[in-house]
């Protein structure tokens, strides 16, 4: 119920979003027809001219676009996922033709093959040329289109790096094709699958069979998540599944959580600073985004250093903070803590004094720097 209310609020407030939504009519030679697409650009797209964004392509865009775009705008606002360009393909009255496949091979034929080529050979290249896109692309489908998006994954070089398949109405052989293909991936791929207790019975049964097969795939490059939601119908399911799907795909992008802090960082045998660097390198490797380390993530690592009394790591953390936030006192504060805890009080005092000249940040104030400096002066008589 909470997820449904959340989705309804998103839909209700979407019209007030600062993200830019525009409509385009695309002339397709592959379809020998025109097709309407909806495009949501991130907030600040026009101002941040050097920034590029992941691309999320939403099939069944006539009814799926708004819920995906609203969730993307919301999650990116709170930095739980990167800002992204969201494109919806309107398929009203064309859905059956667009998703046409052979009953013998389960692969696209005729109008389905034309639509497949339209997406891969016309639409996505057009979007990459017109907008500032990163290499990371996500495909979102529901029902028939949740089956269809898998065809792009079957290619030797998949068009998308993440797939959100909600209540897929699978072609006969797809339950075999999908897990077999997932076994062979040598690069990272995200796959999200969902059904519900009130889904169409035949779809639910096939989805559960597919889940069992994918869950048995032993491939660390495949990052897989599955949900069975309690209650929603086939048509209400996207409102529940989209938030969960985005959370699972962009989990590493999110700030360090209390759970990550307790269950992972506090139990590290090595450097928590290396863990922090690896986290942000993974973000860059997966999504093509060089993200500035969040101040709250610095604070989480500092808290772990302090709690575990691994004070030597303050030096490494301070140097990193100086690079990330050079105009602030964050780096100097951590370096001063390092000197203070490793019996170099004079260096600690001078570093606190130097921090006084820099900008305040994250609860670190000029008054605090003077207080820390004066405490050392009083203790050691400098």
Q: Could you name the key traits of this structure?
A:
382 residues; alpha/beta; Rossmann fold; Serine Threonine Protein Phosphatase 5, Tetratricopeptide repeat; 8-stranded mixed sheet
Description:
With 382 residues, this protein is of the alpha/beta class. The chain has helices at 2-13, 61-77, 95-98, 111-130, 144-148, 150-153, 174-183, 201-215, 237-249, 258-263, 272-287, 295-308, 313-324, 330-341, 345-355, 366-380; strands at residues 20-28, 33-41, 53-58, 85-89, 133-142, 162-166, 189-198, 222-233. It folds into 2 domains: 2-253, 3-Layer(aba) Sandwich (Rossmann fold), CATH 3.40.50; 258-380, Serine Threonine Protein Phosphatase 5, Tetratricopeptide repeat (Alpha Horseshoe). The chain is built from 16 helices and 8 strands. An 8-stranded mixed β-sheet has the order 1-2-4-3-5-6-7-8, sandwiched between helices. Helix 1 packs across helix 2 (61-77) and helix 14 (330-341) packs antiparallel against helix 15. Residues 8-17 have low confidence and may be disordered.
Summarize the structure.
The chain has helices at residues 2-13, 61-77, 95-98, 111-130, 144-148, 150-153, 174-183, 201-215, 237-249, 258-263, 272-287, 295-308, 313-324, 330-341, 345-355, 366-380, and strands at 20-28, 33-41, 53-58, 85-89, 133-142, 162-166, 189-198, 222-233.
Beta-strand proportion: 15-25%
Which outline best applies?
elongated
Name given to the CATH homologous superfamily of the largest domain: Alpha/Beta hydrolase fold, catalytic domain
**pLDDT averaged over residues:** 94
């Amino acid at each position: 119920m909470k997820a449904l209310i959340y989705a309804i609020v998103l839909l209700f407030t979407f019209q007030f979003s600062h993200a830019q939504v525009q409509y385009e009519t695309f002339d397709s030679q592959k379809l020998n027809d025109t097709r309407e697409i909806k495009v949501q650009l991130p907030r600040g797209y026009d101002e941040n001219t050097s920034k590029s964004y992941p691309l999320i392509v939403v099939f069944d865009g006539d009814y799926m676009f708004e819920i995906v775009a609203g969730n993307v705008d919301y999650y990116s606002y709170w930095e739980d996922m990167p800002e992204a360009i969201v494109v919806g393909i309107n398929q009203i009255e064309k859905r059956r033709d667009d998703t046409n496949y052979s009953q013998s091979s389960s692969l696209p034929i005729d109008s389905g093959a034309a639509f497949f080529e339209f997406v891969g050979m016309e639409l996505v290249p057009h979007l990459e040329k017109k907008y500032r896109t990163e290499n990371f692309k996500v495909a979102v489908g529901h029902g028939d289109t949740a089956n269809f998006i898998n065809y792009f994954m079957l290619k030797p070089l998949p068009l998308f790096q993440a797939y959100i398949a909600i209540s897929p109405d699978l072609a006969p052989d797809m339950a075999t094709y999908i897990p077999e293909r997932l076994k062979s991936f040598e690069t990272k791929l995200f796959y999200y699958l969902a059904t519900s207790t009130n889904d169409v019975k035949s779809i639910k049964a096939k989805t559960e069979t597919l889940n069992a097969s994918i869950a048995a795939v032993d491939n660390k490059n495949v990052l897989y998540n599955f949900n069975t939601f309690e209650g929603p119908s086939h048509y209400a399911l996207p409102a529940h599944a989209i938030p969960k799907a985005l959370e699972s795909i962009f989990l590493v992008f999110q700030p360090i959580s209390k759970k990550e802090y307790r269950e992972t960082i506090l139990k590290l045998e090595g450097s928590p600073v290396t863990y922090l660097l690896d986290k942000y390198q993974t973000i860059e490797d997966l999504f093509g985004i060089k993200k500035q380390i969040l101040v709250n993530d610095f604070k989480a690592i500092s808290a772990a250093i302090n709690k575990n009394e691994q004070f030597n790591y303050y030096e490494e953390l301070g140097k990193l903070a100086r690079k990330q936030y050079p105009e602030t006192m964050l780096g100097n504060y951590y370096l001063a803590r390092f000197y203070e805890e490793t019996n170099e009080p004079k260096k600690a005092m001078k570093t606190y004094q130097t921090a006084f000249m820099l900008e305040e940040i994250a609860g670190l104030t000029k008054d605090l720097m003077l207080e820390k400096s004066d405490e050392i002066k009083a203790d050691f008589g400098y």
